[in-house]
């Protein structure tokens, strides 16, 4: 495609002619660092996830397969990115499809499909899960098209605030998805209603 | 051509028309009060809200001061990541670029994420003109599109409809909905939208978006949304075209730590919106494999050239100022004529374009200042409103003006205490016969020409029977 060098030059010329000249100092007096980590952080995350209508369970690593199995009980089939550990889904008795990039939208849109992933980091203060397409999270469409998403969060992945979460990301140029509760809308009389286009069931398992 | 930022009707004319719609005023009152309370609650949870606002304002000012370098940096980073960057001087050029890109794919239908930039440039109409149908996928945009209406709010374009009206629009315009069973229960309406759009998401080849933020150092774009329609459009199509205003830049990825705290709490009154997507060019095997970015000026550099008015370019389109504005709450978004309504629109639209009746927009305010208090990037909207009003007056200097003659006379009278007291006495005597007409309200609804210009939008109070000075003199005379 043409990149219209005339338009580019003209816009840049206009900006140069109009821009302010004085340099700007940015005061960063907001809280950029987390407080001390602790159990309260997990409590806070649980509270905020539930406030935005996600279901949450806490368990030990040993109990994880059973808890995941309970959440997946009604699912007809399960999709999991290649990097999800085998133990996580060991209690699920239905068919499991590991995604190597070959699953199609139609596969994922079939009725009763659930998806199981990990996450990169979780923010307690806002109840947010960040997925960065890591091996246990996979392609973005995996957590979008199925109507049921189960996400496993390790306690050491939880931070208190957003600034700390962004600093934890290994590579910000990977595709990132920040998820705070199931799909919702505020478009009808500005009240929040859950359940539009994304997964309508979001379930989180916090493993200590 | 400046796109949809020009109002054809002067604000007072459009406002009078809108004020006649009582249902509209009830709907707006309910929605704006709901969101106001939610915003206050979640902003109150953040102890460092004011430092975040200060940082947000400064980061945006820094961007404006370094804009040429940051634009070139963004272009280089996005290009290196596999995106193709295009530039557009105005709305017409931006539409032409997008239309050509869509035509090159051979598709006749595109899915769209809600985007102010594409509304601003009139993209849907431009695509329609070359035979491409743009499907709006945000619930409120879909409602407006189905109703063949125009948006009336930055965040919730269908804010002027209540649930029953939305139900009626869906029942009559959605071919795939059963009109006999559809209720006005919001979850049922959301479900209807889900079913209506699902097959389109899964099959359409081209997605079109805007961007809330563009990161100069990495070439990353961010879209903040709620429903998942954004994720659908950003992830499933083969080609993604994003229309981005040149002021959307942030210097680095770390700057998102400020704006992703400010934006959701200010716009939907949530701690965090359900979905935020960030992508950098093309990622092999994940998402669209052809990615275009169109950088748009369309009046932004004109705004940038004004030292007082350029702060309007800090705007992150949260719409908090609309929700707290006593004028917006009563007249609604259509009265402003532009896709940018409310307090921010009253300063943004006339700076982006001097055409049409845009110079009436800076008067669409009581200057109460609620918008400045609510603004997450501290845009001093009242200051810019007064500045733009002043510019309008300055531009008209040299021409006869009844207002200026009246102000000169007033100035002469008020410069001298005796002249002032005598004028008040005269006014009181003159007003005496009118007291019967004014009744208990003590105000006149209509004055004869040329003072009718004053009473066309407000009452004229009669002077009090005695002034404070007279009362004081009598009380303390003995």
UniProtKB/TrEMBL annotation, chain A:
SUPFAM superfamilies: NagB/RpiA/CoA transferase-like. PANTHER family: LACTATE UTILIZATION PROTEIN C. Residues 115-207 form the LUD domain. It comes from the Bacteria. This is LUD domain-containing protein.
UniProtKB/TrEMBL annotation, chain B:
Residues 71-296 form the LUD domain. Gene3D superfamilies: Alpha-helical ferredoxin, NagB/RpiA/CoA transferase-like. Residues 398-475 form the Lactate utilization protein B C-terminal domain. The keyword Iron-sulfur applies. It holds the Pfam family LUD_dom. Residues 312-379 form the 4Fe-4S ferredoxin-type domain. Keywords: 4Fe-4S, Electron transport, Iron, Iron-sulfur, Metal-binding, Repeat, Transport. InterPro entries: 4Fe4S_Fe-S-bd, 4Fe4S_Fe_S_CS, FTHF_cligase-like_sf, Helical_ferredxn, LUD_dom, LutB/LldF, LutB_C, NagB/RpiA_transferase-like. The keyword Cell inner membrane does not apply. This is Iron-sulfur cluster-binding protein. It comes from Asanoa iriomotensis.
